[in-house]
Amino acid sequence: MSVPLRPAVERIPAYVPGARAATGQRVHKLSSNENPYGPLPTVQEAVAQAAGTLNRYPDMFASELTEAVAARHGVTPEHVVAGCGSVAVLGHVLQAFCDPGDEVVHAWRSFEAYPIVIRLQGATPVPVPVDADGRHDLPAMLAAVTDRTRAVLLCSPNNPTGPALRHTQVAHTLAALPDDVLVVLDEAYVEFVRDEDPVDSRALLAAHPNLVVLRTFSKAYGLAGLRVGYAVARPDVARGIRTASTPFGVNHLAQVAAVASLQPDAQAELDRRVDAVVAERHRVLTGLRAQGWTVPDSQGNLVWLPTGPATADLAADAAAHGVLVRPFAGEGIRVSIGEPDSNDRVLELAGRWREHHQAG
Ligand SMILES: *Cc1c(COP(=O)(O)O)cnc(C)c1O
């Protein structure tokens, strides 16, 4: 006899991380939607200085970070909860609001962490297929809401397919839902959005007490290795999330790096990097379409190749050519936007695959 796992945990699929390079191997790592550029020099310097005080616990409430984030969003610090990456914050949101048996509606395919964190909470994921363009099917998601629904997760831009939701769509969804259903808007890639009618989460938060906005420093800010993200919500909602949070969950280096990233003098360089990724995204999307691929619009730092049954073979071929991508077996390949030479390699490979495909 061994101690049985909770049945909910037994059923959870393992998170599949993006492939990593073997030590010493030079590869184009496009498998985890990371920022290809290293942390800003000012951020690296702040982290190096902070290393001298690691014998101390971090500020439990990440006060300086929370204040800087609140100022950025035009809210008071009571509205902000920082956590060990926005995935952890999402876990705390569900811990604070979901009981076993509660349902959480989310798009699928979307972020693979969603069904994991929902199940871990004992709640039931209710996946609603994205449409042929990789977009959330919001009418279908609304139709999936029952009196057991406790939360609706919206991922905009959607990982791994790419499209962003529009402001009017999210506003309409919030208006259509009862106030006692939480809406979690995961904006991990918001900085890369260049869409018409982008979601104005500040306006939506002012109008809807049931909205939680999630942001991260892992993507546009290039701090994936430090694990820091946050939620913005009404103070009573934020208080619940804070209660569920891991004490001292945001480590000292992460707090220092995130605060340094929010300094006004860091903004221009961060913007320049994001703009470079956006320009490359445009180049990659245009190049793929010129090759004959049907790819969804992307507003994140990623593109989705619908490779179907050939997915595993093509991902292996990419790896053999030094390009690490994220395959979703039988469905497609998510490729992060990297530096221009990495993206050139992607276009080369995709062009070759396309020719073979058409020849076969
Ligand atoms: C990368 C990503 C996150 C951020 O995760 P962290 O835990 O903050 O690194 C959140 N949501 C989505 C959809 C993502 O792709």
Describe, in short, the structure shown.
Belongs to the class-II pyridoxal-phosphate-dependent aminotransferase family. This protein is α/β, with parallel strands linked by helices and 360 residues long. 40% of the residues lie in helices and 15% in strands.
What key phrases describe this protein's structure?
three-stranded antiparallel β-sheet, Aromatic amino acid aminotransferase, 40% helix, Aspartate Aminotransferase, domain 1, transferase, seven-stranded mixed β-sheet, EC 2.6.1.57, Aspartate Aminotransferase, domain 2
Helix share bin: 40-55%
Q: Give the SSE string.
A: HEHHEHEHEHEHEHEEHHHEHEEEH
How many separate helices? Answer: 13
Strand content: 15-25%
**Order of strands in the sheet with the most strands?**
2-8-7-6-5-3-4
Give the full name of the CATH homologous superfamily of the largest domain. Answer: Type I PLP-dependent aspartate aminotransferase-like (Major domain)
- CATH fold naming of the largest domain: Aspartate Aminotransferase, domain 2
CATH second-level architecture of the largest domain? 3-Layer(aba) Sandwich
- Per the principal axes of the C-alpha atoms, what is the gross shape? globular
Number of strands: 12
Total domain units? 2
The radius of gyration over CA amounts to 20 Å
Task: Provide the CATH top-level class of the largest domain.
Answer: Alpha Beta
Bound molecules: pyridoxal-5'-phosphate
- Straight-line distance between termini: 54 Å
Largest sheet: 7 strands, mixed
User: Which whole number gives the mean pLDDT?
Assistant: 96
Ranges where pLDDT stays below 50 over 5 or more residues in a row are: none
Structural class: alpha/beta
Protein name: Aromatic amino acid aminotransferase
EC number: 2.6.1.57
Keywords: Aminotransferase, Pyridoxal phosphate, Transferase
GO molecular function: aromatic-amino-acid transaminase activity; histidinol-phosphate transaminase activity; pyridoxal phosphate binding
